[in-house]
Amino acid sequence: MILVSCKPQETPKKDHLIENEDYIDLSSQYDGESIDYNESLWYMNNLKDVPLPDPHVYVENDTYYIVGTSDRNPDVVDCYVTTDFVNYELYTEIYNPVLYDGWEDRKEALVFAPEIYCFDGVYYMYYSAKDQNLKRRCSVVVADNPLGPYKPLVNDEVDGLSNPLFHNADYVKRALDATVFTDDDGKMYMYFTVTQKSQNITDVDTQHIVGVELISPYQADWSTYKELVIPGTVDAESNEQVLEWELYRDNKVQINEAPFMIKSNGKYYLTYSTNGAWNKYYNVCYAVSDSPLGKFVKPYEEGKIWTNLLMGFPGTNDEEALIYDQWVGFASGTGHHCFFYAGDELMIGYHAHKNRNWNSKDYTERFFAFDYVHFDENGVPFINGPTYSTVNLPESISGYKNILADAIITGNNVQNVQKINDNYIVDYYNLDSKDNEVLLGAGESYIEIEFDDLYEIKGVVVYNSAYYDSYIVEIEYIDFGNGNIIYYPQFCEDFYFNDETEFVRPLSCFNLEILKTFKAEKVKIGFNLPNGGAINEIVILGK
After folding, report:
1. Among 504, 532, 530, 531, which Cα is nearest to 439's?
2. Order of strands, edge to edge, in the sheet holding 112-119?
3. Using omega within 30 degrees of 0 as the cis cutoff, is the peptide bond preceding 114 cis?
4. For 57-388, which CATH class?
5. Rounded Cα gap, residues 500 and 286, in angstroms
6. What is the distance of C-alpha 471 from the center of its chain?
7. Which letter, b or e, does each residue of 490-511 get, where b requires 16 or more Cβ atoms within 10 Å of its Cβ?
């Protein structure tokens, strides 16, 4: 749709706001390596604060407890605590199995992927570890507060000291990555990864996702045990591996691991990681079902790829067509995730390789990162990420929100203006979604945003095009309709794209912070592009 005004609009003639006095253009803060920014308003996944693979975030009273596989000491569980995702306090050894002389191996327990939940005032931490036969098992320990110390659970029903509580030799040989989901009716389910050979598919060891209903937080109803997800197949009943991006050629083991369940619009989305944590193509995919224990089906359309990719570094098995290696230097190994709420906003927490150019099968440092989760009109989740740009912090932390949700948006010499606040940003694994970008015509154009109230304005973000041939380098003006106007914000090309590969980094953006806040009820953003261009979302931070 093209909206054309009755007469040409002139560029507003007003005194401009003074940069670094009235506002900061974050593009000007780039020093050749990083961007300086206000950490109380923005975040950036710099991969420097929380060296914790396989993260899980437990939230209580606006405090975030992050546990994971400890790089400091993999035989214990550590926890990072934060209220703002800037300042972190490390609590070490909130669980140490050696102290209890239980079923875990005395020399090398290797406690992996812990997750914390609270049921009826008791804190349960699910985890996997090696037993004294060096087999990986899943169990749960308990505490009376999120930071423990966690202890084995022993009562009249179970003995979690002598035995892993979720091991059943009739069903499970080796297991890891346990996660728990409570449905709306109060029923509880556990999902975890097992290692076994796939009948009629491959004769190599393969990691599958399985599920079981729980009788209690520490007991499984093994009669409900069911195989749910197999690497590369559309569903667990299929014997054809057509999702080749789940079977990257460098893997010796076929991997679907690290499950996490999310429910939306009556559907169950079983999300998981593929390809192996050492692989740069470690990413997050999903399968969907009408019930908690399936049948789960991965979205697939013949001839297309990445059809069930939720977040990650896209790859392909075609050695002659690895165009997605343009992501090197931006992200690597983004997977083993969880979902958590920051206030009312849903986030994904995950780990990423600290070395963004990683291309090895050896061990590498992995750090915690997080991004926003959104849902389309059908309730299907999608994620704009992994990000390596300045992103606004959740409202519950910064005090400011994106105020475009109920705004009236119009434009001149613009197509798809209605897409400016649908939360969807075109990325390099969904490039067939160009219709979701906002197309700016040649010459003068503008987008006008009218709010439902008078808001205090704190920041403006304009997400650029994902296409190298249509990204823009300058905005002509941002007029707040009250005598405040910013002229010529710049795009930080040195940071956001690689000229050699003609590649624009995902979620690249113009980013402005208002230092001296003011009230406004509308914003008009003007462009003057000789050959036209495109942008994705606009975020106006206000309260």
Report:
1. 532
2. 112-119, 122-130, 136-143, 151-152
3. no
4. mainly beta
5. 33
6. 24
7. ebbbebbbeeeeebbbbbbbbb
User: pLDDT digits over 1-16, tens only?
Assistant: 333 333 334 444 456 8
Pick the closest to residue 222 from 165, 181, 168, 163 (CA basis): 168
Q: Which two tokens stand for residue 359?
A: 């291309």
Percent of the chain whose predicted confidence (pLDDT) is above 90: 76
Supply 372's token pair: 């926003």
Residue-wise DSSP of 258-320: EEEEEEETTEEEEEEEES-TTSTT-EEEEEEESSTT---B----TT---TTEEES----S-TT
Domains in the chain: boundaries = 23-40+401-542, 57-388
Cα-Cα-Cα-Cα dihedral sign, residues 305, 309, 315, 321? positive
CA–CA gap between residue 362 and residue 277 (Å, rounded): 10
- CA 464, CA 356: separation in Å to the nearest integer? 22
Identify the CATH class of 23-40+401-542. Answer: mainly beta
Residues 476-517: tens digit of each pLDDT: 999 999 999 999 999 999 998 877 767 788 889 999 999 999
Residue with more model confidence, 459 or 506:
459
Q: Is 374 exposed, middle or buried (0-12, 13-18, 19+ CB in 10 A)?
A: middle
Encoding tokens for residue 435?
Answer: 């219709």
Return the structure tokens found at 211. 């599920």
User: Which residue, chain included where needed, has tokens 């000229």?
Assistant: 499
3-state secondary structure 317-372: CCCCCCHHHHHCCCCCCCEEEEEEEECCEEEEEEEEECCCCCCCCCCCCEEEEEEE
Average pLDDT value over all residues in the chain: 91
Burial 70-109 (b: 16+ CB within 10 A, else e): beeebbbbbbbbbeebeebeebebbbbbeebebbbbeeeb
Looking at 52-135, which runs of residues are DSSP E strands? 56-60, 63-67, 77-82, 89-95, 112-119, 122-130
Q: How far apart are CA 366 and CA 47, in angstroms?
A: 8
Burial (CB < 10 A; 0-12, 13-18, 19+), residue 383, is: buried
Tokens of 190: 């556990």
- First-to-last C-alpha distance (Å) of the chain: 31
Assign residue 327 a region (left: φ > 0; alpha: ψ between -120 and 50; beta: otherwise). alpha
CA angle 476/479/484 to nearest 5° reads: 120
